[in-house]
Amino acid sequence: MVSPFGATGSGVDLRSYWMGLTGSEWVQTRKGTIKHELGLHDVPHTHHAGADAAELAQVFDAVLRRRQPAEEASPPAEQA
Question: What distance, in Å, lies between the first and last C-alpha atoms of the chain?
Answer without folding.
Answer: 43
